[in-house]
């Protein structure tokens, strides 16, 4: 049998990814970047919302095998792959895989060591488990959206990064790897239920800790991390740009004031009743100079202040260029694999796009007679 994929801390691990959009393919990408041998099964109809086809970064590092899981041939291939896999990940609503005859009970009966990873919005159980939704719904329920609000403004969301990717895909990948480690000891697989409402709620742990300590007391927009504090805020510059200031620690705050030429006595950091006034004064300071001016003055110093860059401007930042934070694959500039490993490096690879998936299936010991 052909050897497993080289490199990466998950080299030698086989993952079967079953369709889906959003968090499931992103989790498959994360696992593939880490060196896992991932095969993705998806409908022949093609890409879903937000997917570009073979050049889509979230589909990199693995082949996509077109299959109809409602047909016997497709189901047979899924069973064959699941029998050889260390883990399976899927992102359908609860009950879909069971109706296809590919639920945990059926597959674990054939492969008792299989880790069965599931990512959904509301989880596998509960009164809303069967309902549809998207990132915005999950962050609304979990409290993330309610905390992301300035005074007098409606709540603002961080596109689809919190629930879909942070609380969904990354929690799924983490859960699968944890279960794989446990299976090495017990010899038994299990189901990983990664719900985006759970994951996005988990990401609010610090806010709950601050609340319990009495440090998060006011309504949204009046607390330390939600735009209430003048030292944790985004300020407009003279040329329409912005600077993000996050000088929480006293010594960094002191350095910020020093660079701005402002006397500490007039800018007490923790007098909450003066935060609105001090924010107004800093607004005037930052609006007097260009974005480039503030970049040169603040960004390479210990003031915890950085210029705000657009998503397609970020790859050109000198620090990100030096680290190779972005790579180009199949003509598409995209984030590189992360985190980094000193001995078994993770690598972002292009999607495998052979007209026939025979080479990928052969790595798993499946020949034409089996698919």
Please state how the strands of the largest beta sheet are arranged side by side.
3-2-1-4-5-6
Oligomer: single chain
CATH domain class name of the largest domain:
Alpha Beta
- Which architecture of the largest domain would the CATH scheme give at its second level? 3-Layer(aba) Sandwich
- Structural category: alpha/beta
Care to describe what's here?
The protein has 14 helices and eleven strands. Helix 1 crosses helix 7, helix 5 (about 135-140) crosses helix 7 and helix 7 (about 160-185) packs across helix 8 (about 195-200). A hairpin with a 5-residue loop joins strand 7 and strand 8. The strands form three sheets. A six-stranded parallel beta sheet has the order 3-2-1-4-5-6, sandwiched between helices. The protein has helices at about 25-35, 70-85, 95-100, 105-110, 135-140, 145, 160-185, 195-200, 205-210, 250-260, 275-285, 290-300, 320-325, 360-365, and strands at about 15-20, 35-40, 65, 85-90, 115-120, 190-195, 230-235, 240-245, 305, 325-330, 330-335. The longest helix has 26 residues, at about 160-185. With about 375 residues, the chain is α/β, with parallel strands linked by helices.
